[in-house]
Amino acid sequence: MAPDTGKYNNNDPLYTIDSFNPLPAVPFHRKPVFWASASILIILTAVSIFIVNLLEEDPDINLIQRIAYAREEIRIYFYPETCLTEPEYSVTAVSDSGFCLEIYGVTRGYSYTSNYQYGLLRNIHREFSSDTMRFTFEFDTLTAEPEISFNLNPPELVINYHSGIGEKFIVVLDPGHGGDRPGAIGRGGTQEKHLVLETGQIIKSLLSENEEIMVIMTRNRDRGVSIAERIRLSRFWRPDLFISLHANSARNRTVNQTEIYYASQRGRETARLLQSRLNREVSFRPVKTRRRGFAVIRSSNAFYGAVLIEMLYLSNTNGERMLNDSNTLQRFAELISETIIDIKNR
């Protein structure tokens, strides 16, 4: 397991998951500097007038600007001009799957429900009534009552919740492609996106037997996920390992081998361990490791590095036949899972 130093801490990136727009937002466009500056000045002037009018109507209002989310932390930001002191709030209905937070003195708002896929947060129900904003946060699991504090500069409520994942060995599995991006396609019509998803699901199932390991998948069904979204999800979790799963293709249809790519020294070490393990299966040989700057592995902040595995070649007749065999995918998953456990136990 990764030591505490270098792993998750409160300085992890926060991602905006909910934005509120009672004030005009400043758009960003690639315009000439003069017009961009003029536009921003006009908008800021309008914002200032809007805020002054609001404060004249009610000097005690608290306008919520946005909500940001980290691995075990939620922050609710207020507009500084409208939140001069700590707002009144209370936490109710705490359970093992969520809690409610009521913030008083909020004079503007609306109700809706938002669904999220990051981390363990699943839904946010937002209800506005009179001068109270009520948030209901739903999680996969909570292990203790949330701790809430307030910072004035910038004005924000900081909610620290406990999900029990702090000590787990976290692996992000990234089945490539998906949705309208099939990836490589064999001469027999086999699509890469289905093979890698099935392999990822087998790996997750195998590792679920180990309570010390938590597996996050960038997709668990046939849907498109952008490179930026894969990177964002990986960096959100600050995992111990990041593994992207693929199947290759080449113009030379005689090529059929397993390849493991890395982009850092730690990734190289993980690639070598996977290479050693996968070489035990004669049909996967030769297993080669190479350094490449693929975005998903180059941008990863995984503690033990990130790798991209190309499981044989769909452009090769034998490679396609093998990857269509569920026993092959099962064997790939078993060897990858064994390597993950070895790395965790180092």
Structural commentary:
- This protein is an alpha+beta fold and 346 residues long.
- The protein is built from 7 helices and 16 strands.
- Helix 2 crosses helix 7 (326-344) and helix 4 (265-278) packs across helix 7.
- It is elongated, with a radius of gyration of 24 Å.
Shape: elongated
In spatial order, strands of the major sheet run 12-11-13-16-14-15
What is the CATH class of the largest domain? Alpha Beta
Order of helices and strands: EHEEEEEEEEEEHEHEEHEHEHH
How many H/I helices? 7
* Class inferred from helices and paired strands: alpha+beta
Major β-sheet profile: 6 strands, mixed
**CATH architecture assignment name of the largest domain:** 3-Layer(aba) Sandwich
CATH topology of the largest domain: Aminopeptidase
Radius of gyration: 24 Å
What fraction strand?
25-35%
Q: CATH H-level name of the largest domain... which superfamily?
A: Zn-dependent exopeptidases
Helix content: 25-40%
What number of structural domains do the residues give? 2
| Spatial separation of the terminal alpha carbons | 7 Å
